[in-house]
Amino acid sequence: MRLDLLSALNTERAARRAAILVTDMASGTQRLVKHADPLAGDPLAADLERRFRSGKSGLVESDDGSSSFLTVSVPLPRLVIIGAVHITQALLPMARLAGFDVVVIDPRTAFATPERFAGNVLRAEWPQDVLKEMPLDAYTALAAVTHDPKIDDHPLIEALKAGCFYVGALGSRKTHARRVERLRDAGLSDAQIARIDAPIGMDIGAASPAEIAVAVLAKIISAFRKGPEAG
Question: How far apart are alpha carbons 4 and 20 in whole angstroms?
Answer without folding.
Answer: 14
